Amino acid sequence: MNRLGSSILGAALAMGVLPATAAQLVVEVTGLEDDQGQFVVEVFGSRVGYPRQPSYTLSVPVEAGSARAEFTELAPSDYAVHGWHDRNENGKADRGFGSEPFAYSNLPVGERGDWEETRITLGVDPLNLRFDFAPQRDED
User: Fold this and answer.
1) Rounded to two decimals, what is the model's pTM?
2) Which residue from 7, 41, 98, 117 has the least number of CB within 10 angstroms?
3) Coil, strand or helix at 4
4) What is the C-alpha separation between 66 and 68, in angstroms, rounded?
5) Average pLDDT of the chain?
6) Which residues belong to the signal peptide in this entry (predicted)?
7) 110 has pLDDT over 90
């Protein structure tokens, strides 16, 4: 890098113009019953908005009972993750009769929890979460 480029880079760093370290969160989803609709992943950046106001939301296609959502520009921090199979693509997690399957970070599929139960810590290294919707078999 030439002297001018180094000066510009140094000035940008000093002024805080360049982005802070970004972390990656990958949510892998398996075991969905069908490929209907989409899978929605919500990431909550604080206890204040949880569980109604996500900081980030991604809707991804479902293929062969699986889906994958990548959040690549998150700041290292604490988060909670909620995902559901939005079969009718209405953008809402339908509950009750004909409900759509859902999961929260740190909990078994189909269980809800508070911020402390679902909170994960994202550092500078990538973090992979897995939601497995396949029916669990009892081992005899």
Assistant:
1) 0.83
2) 98
3) helix
4) 7
5) 89
6) 1-22
7) yes
